[in-house]
């Protein structure tokens, strides 16, 4: 067995053998163990994990190692740590995506355009799904989300020059429309993108108001988009969302060199 293993090792590229030979750190091993606890078939979001002392003893590591592992798991969105209490299993979320997008946009302004294009693709699909649900047996489940979208439009129309109101109602409208699609994972992915691209959205509103255009036009555009979704025709909903976000992409492309998310 030894001779066979040595022969196999000799046939492997040196780089691959070196990677396989590298031992995993204790922290990495503990992270993997706790990940398995979090995704077990009987584990629900909000389930309480054993206390840190108990986990450290179970894995035979120090509390320092255990806490480093918990920090990693928290950053990945798998657990929620609480002061003085055991951590709990987090609900499914897109926190790792949000952090990745935010970091990418800060380092490379071209990424702002790329992630805005991704947002457009996801929202267009969300509009398609929302129109399908509105036209089908799930229509009653969409009503609260449509009501929220209408409230956001009305609030923006009532105070179109107030920047915080414009941004908050813009986000609320798009969140409500995506929620009407009934796809939780899609909602989480878009929420992550929205938070990472928040500064770009604010810049878009600033530049729009600076043009001297009717500030209430934004509310009208949202109303037209909502009406297209409410037809129950996925093609109309897709076309309306495509146009709506195409304008956003054009505005980002027109920004002076150096302008981005900041």
Automatic annotation (TrEMBL):
Region (Disordered) location: 1-23
Keyword Magnesium: no
HTH gntR-type domain span: 24-92
Keyword hit for Protein biosynthesis: no
Record organism: Streptomyces smyrnaeus
UniProt cross-references to PROSITE patterns, sorted A to Z: HTH_GNTR
Keywords: DNA-binding, Transcription, Transcription regulation
Alphabetical list of CDD domains matching this protein: WHTH_GntR
InterPro entries with a match to the protein in the record: GntR_C, TF_FadR/GntR_C, Tscrpt_reg_HTH_GntR, WH-like_DNA-bd_sf, WH_DNA-bd_sf
Protein name (Swiss-Prot/TrEMBL): FadR family transcriptional regulator
Superkingdom as given in the UniProt entry: Bacteria
